[in-house]
Design goal:
Strands 1, 2, 3, 4, 5, 6, 7 and 8 form an eight-stranded mixed beta sheet that branches. A three-stranded antiparallel beta sheet has the order 9-10-11. The chain starts with a helix and ends with a helix. 20% of the residues lie in helices and 36% in strands. By secondary structure, it is of the alpha+beta class. It comes from Solibacillus merdavium. This is CoA pyrophosphatase. Pfam families: NUDIX (PF00293).
């Protein structure tokens, strides 16, 4: 191996993390709307007829398709499909660091401003209702957290004979944080709450 060739290969653009190129990639928009001179974060409640996560609270977004030019393009497309908002009317303010849920799942979050007048024709096949939370409220109310233990469970055909200590190998356990915001009669949790918490911390 020629060391200069190796150096050249390492200088080429690389994925953000190992596995990014094969991971399930999605993009979301954290929408801001101005109401009566006050900034709010917009949320959607998934339609109760949806096959996956009916009734959950989230941001507009979804899977990045092969036809999407970028994660941002996917976030804008999904926002248009779910909220009926003209993509050209969304003012993108910036983005957050990608959230690597696992080596096989990553979310790219963007922040953008939507005009309230654009929200009159959301897709009722995907969205049950829309609501907003004042940004000032989010800046002054901390979420609470619950922990979910995660313990590896190898399959019955795992090659224990290939590793030190075999079936007595001490697997590393961990726990997953689940954050919760309670606003009026809405509970914001899961991936949405995690992105929201990071966004609020970023702007404080």
């Amino acid at each position: 191996m020629n060391i200069n060739h190796l150096k050249g290969q390492l200088a080429k653009p690389q994925p953000l993390f190992l596995g990014e190129e094969t991971a399930f990639r999605s993009a979301v928009l954290i929408p801001l709307v101005e109401k009566e001179g006050e900034w709010h974060v917009l949320f959607e409640v998934r339609a109760l007829t949806m096959r996956k996560q009916p009734g959950d609270i989230g941001f507009p977004g979804g899977k990045i398709d092969d036809t999407d030019a970028s994660p941002l393009a996917a976030a804008l497309r999904e926002t248009h499909e779910e909220l009926g908002v003209d993509q050209q009317s969304i003012q993108i303010l910036g983005h957050l660091s990608p959230y690597v849920v696992s080596p096989s799942f990553v979310v790219y979050p963007f922040i953008g401003v939507i005009e309230p007048s654009e929200l009159d024709a959301f897709n009722k096949d995907e969205v049950e209702e829309l609501f907003t939370v004042p940004l000032d409220w989010l800046l002054t109310h901390e979420p609470y957290v619950h922990y979910i233990p995660i313990e590896p469970k190898p399959s019955i055909d795992f090659p224990f004979d290939k590793i030190a200590n075999g079936e007595n190998y001490e697997w590393r356990t961990s726990r997953m944080e689940e954050w919760f915001y309670e606003y009026r009669n809405y509970t914001i949790w899961g991936l949405t709450a995690r992105l929201l918490k990071y966004f609020v911390a970023k702007i404080k």
